[in-house]
């Protein structure tokens, strides 16, 4: 006996053997059991989802002779053994007329078909007309079919099947009971393939079935045909490597490795993964498409984990990977991937475009790419100058708790050169008597050699803003934080008096603790925060600091931004500036007359804009234009120049 392909051998012969399409199965079974039969059924859906199979099962239900239910003898459970069922299964039942509309489109063919409608069935209970790809009929054929389709003889049933119902006239659609068959999900296909291969005694790897299930694109017939091909390719086995080679598809595990490299922010590994992919000669545009597809599923895994599909059999791996990436990074990577796909046609070659897109993801992420070991830098205030980049936005500053010897040597001479010019005696620096343990700075200024444990860098470089600050820039207060090298954490730090407190950095915000709100405003821009983390921190005020726990208060209206990952980023940024605390962000009403960093930035921007408008109005050239031509200054278009303070 010749070999029978799996798609035909495992074709369902009853409704209960049908895989998927439960909504159609339920409606037809209930209609058959209750005797509520329509004269015309239309089955729509893509290839291989079961349209013709459903029609043949329905034909058997209508003509089974082994104890049907009701007066008409129809049943929803055909026996499969009576002469009618056997003849239908073998394709030789006289009263089942199957017509391929794609090859019989002429109106003459349709009229010839309809000439026999009036005659009673020869063998069965009903004469069933199964017209496949009915949308291929011509307009004249549809017109010839309409009258019979609307009022057929009682012994005739029409079963129509099509993959393109939009091409059917509305007059035909209105005369049929339409059922739309769905795509088969990969999970259902893999489950059925495992059952079939188990019954056939064919060894298989589950990951290989996931490749077949996705390649089938929702068609169970295509999945069975591909499985036949995989068995032949693998010499009686269905293995992952063989199926991937046969299909020529990208290995999903390599795409996950690429996403893991992005999660680790490891640019070297990203390039290594691309090089490994290049050895297989893939379509790099397809690689980027697969990558963005994984990012889409990661976003779902982060927002609604229960909605994550298992289309590749990698649901658990994606859920684990979703915890290693922030929601902002996933959204940013997805957007860059979509944009990079459209830019590929302009790139020198596709591999270069893929590599640049991946590197752009890392470069544009809010935290940037971690640089190699950096030399610790002294903390600078909002208006500080001196050697190197100054002011907010100067970059991430390494924690000053444990500076290396070279860093001490490079920073110390600058501080000592500034000391005679900017560090007056302690008595002159403050109108109040200094605390008993305060004479640390004079001792440090008198002793040329480097101390073994220098005071925190901000205490040494604190006077710098009064000398190097750009003209017009606000002079923030120096940090009063008691670091690890402080003399005593129990004594309050001395209050600076060399500069009057500016409106944007109030010296007495009403908050208790070693790290005050004025320090928070002064160092906020230099923290280097970005994205949602910056939005959260910019709307907080310092509530209390006891040297161990720093408490920030957040406006309750912005509670949706409060997330542990943003709090942890803020804590790390403060720790890099020497403020090593456990950070707690609590919701509550903000104190009056105390600005958040955002409010401070908005006020300063408004003040700079007002100053710029006033300066333009005083400009003689502007005044001449107004007088000579009736010109008018549009204040909303005025953009003040950025100050050296970085505000």
UniProtKB/TrEMBL annotation:
It is an enzyme of class 2 (transferase). Its EC number is 2.7.7.7. Residues 395-409, 418-430, 481-490, 497-509 have a biased composition (Low complexity). The keyword Phosphoprotein does not apply. Residues 37-183 form the AAA+ ATPase domain. Residues 448-458 have a biased composition (Pro residues). GO terms for molecular function: DNA-directed DNA polymerase activity. It comes from the Bacteria. Residues 382-394 have a biased composition (Gly residues). Residues 372-513 are annotated as: Disordered. The keyword Zinc applies. Gene3D superfamilies: 1.10.8.60, 1.20.272.10, DNA polymerase III, tau subunit, domain V, P-loop containing nucleotide triphosphate hydrolases. Keywords: ATP-binding, DNA replication, DNA-directed DNA polymerase, Metal-binding, Nucleotide-binding, Nucleotidyltransferase, Transferase, Zinc. It catalyses: DNA(n) + a 2'-deoxyribonucleoside 5'-triphosphate = DNA(n+1) + diphosphate. Pfam families: DNA_pol3_delta2, DNA_pol3_gamma3, DNA_pol3_tau_5, DNAX_ATPase_lid. Belongs to the DnaX/STICHEL family. DNA polymerase III contains a core (composed of alpha, epsilon and theta chains) that associates with a tau subunit. This core dimerizes to form the POLIII' complex. PolIII' associates with the gamma complex (composed of gamma, delta, delta', psi and chi chains) and with the beta chain to form the complete DNA polymerase III complex. NCBIfam families: dnaX_nterm (TIGR02397), PRK05563.1 (NF004046), PRK07994.1 (NF005942). DNA polymerase III is a complex, multichain enzyme responsible for most of the replicative synthesis in bacteria. This DNA polymerase also exhibits 3' to 5' exonuclease activity. PANTHER family: PROTEIN STICHEL-LIKE 2, REPLICATION FACTOR C / DNA POLYMERASE III GAMMA-TAU SUBUNIT. This is DNA polymerase III subunit gamma/tau.
